[in-house]
Amino acid sequence: MIPAAMLTFVAAQLGMREDALLDYAARSQTHYDHSAALQRIYGYRPFEGLVRDRFAEWLEGVAVETKTNDALAATMLEELRAQRIIVPGPTTVERACADALVAAERRVVHRITDRIEPHDRQSLLRMLSERMDDGTSRFVWLRRHEAGGNSADANHLLDRLQWLSELAIPLHVIDGVPAHRIARLRRQGERYYADGLRELPEVRRLAILAVCAIEWRAMLADAIIETHERITGRLRRQAQRACAATTLDRKDTITGVLRSLATLGGTMVEARTVGDDVTTAVARSLGWNELERLTSTAAMLTAAIDADPIDHLGSGYHRFRRYAPRMLDALELRGGRSAEPLLAAIELLRDLNRHSRSDLPPEPPIAFARPKWRRRLLPKTSDRRLWETAVLFALGEAIRSGDVWLTQSRRHREPSRELVPVTAVMTAARLAVPHDVADWIASRRAVLERAMDDVSAAAACGTLAGTIDDGALRADRLEADPPPGADDLVLALYGSMPSVRITDLLLDVERWTGFADAFTDLRTGSACKDRIGLLSVILADGINLPLAKMAEAIGIRTHWQLLRVARWHVEDEAYKRALATIVEAQAGLTMARVWGEGRTSSSDGQFFPAGGPGEAMNLVNARYGTEPGVKAYAHLSDQFAPSRCGPSPPPRMRLLTSSTDCSVATLADRSASITPTRVATPTTSSPPAACSTTASRRASAIYPTNASTPSRQARLPLSSVR
Q1: Burial code of 118-138, b = ≥16 C-beta within 10 A, e = fewer?
Q2: pLDDT tens, 243-254?
Q3: pLDDT band at 349 (very low <50, low <70, confident <90, very high)
Q4: Which H or E run includes 508?
Q5: In contact, 268 and 260? CB cutoff 8 Å
Q6: 282: enclosing H helix or E strand
Q7: How far is C-alpha 534 from the geometric centre of its chain's CA atoms?
Q8: What is the pLDDT of residue 429?
Q9: Tell me: the pLDDT tens digits for 188-205?
Q10: Exposure of 344 by Cβ count < 10 A (0-12 exposed, 13-18 middle, 19+ buried)?
Q11: Would you say the C-alpha torsion 194, 199, 203, 207 has a positive or negative sign?
Q12: N or C: which end of the chain has fewer CB within 10 A?
């Protein structure tokens, strides 16, 4: 409202009446005139006409490289402001981003399809039409590439890899296509059945088939290596048991020999004490013939007890022969300088297999072998079984350590490919790391020197929490020293907390954080509309309950509804984004700042041994010996939020997957675009096995079967789980 005094003064200066301005503001054209005048003065342009068309072309190119809808919208707004273009309304921005994403998807699909040769197109389409012996399509048969535990499983995987290798879709088909676009097309292909793919447009169908054919070759190679490691792990455990059984089976013999020797020793000591002849005492006690027999028996038992499990590994040679020749021919192995002896041995083994030769050359390469293996190979360089077994065991160890890698792999690729380019690091403001190696070493040296000075000063003042013995610092172990009444306070706090149903908790946390928006549709990128079904799938995954049992227990969703949500919305990347959303929300809480700023972390690992049937999985970490099991390594921030959690990597890969480098992995196309100190990389549970009666009763307690379908704000119908 213009003040009356000002209006009177301006009207007098212009020689007009005071009410002449009232009609001016009522004109609809006035707003447009003012907007045009402001655009001329400040150099802004409206988002329309030629400007809009050119911007749409630019946005389409950006959409190809962008991972999420939100990131594309943020990039669009930033570019609009940079080009001094008036930002349109929210609906216009959403529509422009949606059109750009659709156009980008089509551009990527056409880029891939246009590079496929006509004869390769027919071969790809055969994947949908050919049927296997069990009635499934070849496409479904190919995507079943889970790692196994025996030679038959290895041959099944090699059959699939051989078919894809003969298909020979060239790698240049996906050159220049962003990695997240390739992964998206592959994940779509893994969720379609043959009938569903046939309903897609041919261009998109061919693009998905080509990407799957290329990506599955790498995944099959990884599965073959994992199967080989499981086989070697099982053989190693069997050899250890054989050594233990040898000692146990000869327990009575060992006991008898020890008793006889003890008796003989007592007789000899007694004879020496009383001054008798020791030779006569030995003859009178056991006799020299019996002593000679005991000596040879003791030597034999000592050799048996001292035997290494390596001596029993040759019994698994026949298992290797069932698949190892095909595996070595199918995999392209590369390595660094330290792996050259092993690669030479592998090449020799390939040549022997191709020419069906059983004899080794006079001096086969053995420099690759560890000392224990080498001591056994040197006297028996002509033993083909022992030498080939040593090569295959060394191959598994070299791949785990990173000395040997596969040219086409996702898990065992060249370690240098895991590094982020220097140019990307230099343009990333989030990574405060030196760009020069000398600067980094100098900074680390300065930190070390300051720490040494602090230790020296503390030692001189007598305030050092430890002792220095012979130049070695030994820190005192910190003992837990809670104040009196702390335990009672903890129990009182727990007692004051209300009993909460897990489903109510899921809905509350989802309402507070919106983590369900991370589970987007793999095809459209839109959030899941069925929140109740989504949370039911997440809960079933968390308690390792099959979806069919969950559907029976809740009664408000069918098995097919839950299966549809799980197939198109729930995946590892979605879990990462959802956990990142929860971590970000936690960091904003006032209580979280009481514990820390979220910039430091604590790292620790837990080892879960595998026994019984689980030993066949041979999940071995080279740093922690040969015991089968899973070593989970987690990084917890000072705000008690996970910054990273996953399987512990091999020693030589530890640098590439440390807590600091998880932010580097984020830049290297690994997960969501979030603050590096809060990167969340959870591990999801493995596919559930057959549901037990206990799990079924647990699900029945979670969801009553007579519950009606709740609304968006309703509670999940939990009954008794606390």
Answers
A1: eebbebbbebbeeeeeeeebb
A2: 777 777 777 777
A3: very high
A4: helix 502-513
A5: no
A6: helix 278-285
A7: 23
A8: 60
A9: 888 888 888 888 899 999
A10: middle
A11: negative
A12: N
Please tell me the distance from the alpha carbon of residue 544 to that of residue 685, in angstroms, as a whole number.
7
Find out whether 696 and 618 touch, Cβ atoms under 8 Å.
no
Within 8 A by CB and 6+ apart from 27, the residues are none
> Which own/partner pairs from 110-118 qualify as long-range (CB within 8 Å, at least 24 positions apart)?
110/203, 111/176, 111/177, 112/173, 112/174, 112/177, 112/185, 112/206, 112/207, 112/210, 112/211, 113/203, 113/206, 113/207, 113/210, 115/172, 115/173, 116/169, 116/173, 116/206, 116/210
DSSP state of 316: G
Instruction: Please name every residue paired with 601 in a beta bridge, in sequence order, or none if there are none.
Output: 637
pTM, whole model, 2 decimals? 0.71
Q: Which residue has the tokens 């038959």?
A: 152
Long-range CB contacts (within 8 A, 24+) of 439-442? none
Token pair listed for 203: 């261009």
The pLDDT of residue 111 is: 92
202-249 and 151-167 helices cross at what angle (nearest 10)? 150
Q: In the numeric block, which tokens belong to residue 428?
A: 């990333």
Query: Per DSSP, what are the bridge partners of residue 137?
Result: 131
Distance of CA 99 to the CA centre of its chain: 33
β partners of residue 475: 466
Structure tokens at 351: 């040549």
Integer Cα distance of 549 and 393 in angstroms? 42
CA of 464: how far to CAs of 201, 294, 453, 530, 692, in Å? 73, 59, 12, 60, 56
Instruction: Please choose, from the candidates 138, 290, 294, the residue with its C-alpha nearest in 3D space to the C-alpha of residue 216.
Output: 138
360-391 pLDDT, tens digit each? 888 888 888 888 888 888 876 678 888 999 99
Whether the Cβ atoms of residue 587 and residue 559 lie closer than 8 Å to each other? no
Which amino acid type is present at position 76?
A: M
Place of tokens 């009383």: 274
Q: Name the strand (E) or helix (H) holding 608.
A: strand 601-609
CB 281 within 8 A of CB 270: yes
DSSP state of 131: B
For residues 327 and 347, give the distance between their C-alpha atoms in angstroms, rounded to a whole number.
Answer: 13
Alpha-carbon distance values, 487 to 62, 82, 137, 493 (Å): 56, 58, 62, 10
Q: Label residue 383 exposed, middle or buried (CB < 10 Å: 0-12, 13-18, 19+).
A: middle
Indicate the angle between helix axes 202-249 and 288-305, nearest 10 degrees: 160
Note the pLDDT tens digit of each residue in 471-511.
Answer: 787 877 777 788 888 889 989 988 888 888 888 888 899 99
Q: Sign of dihedral through CA atoms 43, 49, 54, 56?
A: positive
Residue 669 to residues 66, 101, 149, 427, Cα–Cα distance (Å): 11, 19, 32, 15
717 phi/psi in degrees, rounded to 5: -75, 70
Residue 322 parent element (H or E): helix 317-330
Q: CA-CA distances (angstroms) from residue 461 to 340, 448, 457? A: 54, 20, 6
| Torsion region of 332: left, alpha or beta (phi above 0 gives left; psi -120 to 50 gives alpha) | beta
Phi, psi for 39 (deg, rounded to 5) = -65, -40
Could you tell me which of 714, 711, 715, 693 has the C-alpha nearest to residue 553?
693
Reduce the DSSP state of residue 44 to 3 states and report it. Answer: coil
- Rounded to an integer, what distance in angstroms lies between the CA atom of residue 308 and that of residue 239? 9
- Residue 404's closest CA among 338, 349, 345, 350? 338
Question: Do the Cβ atoms of 618 and 226 come closer than 8 Å?
Answer: no
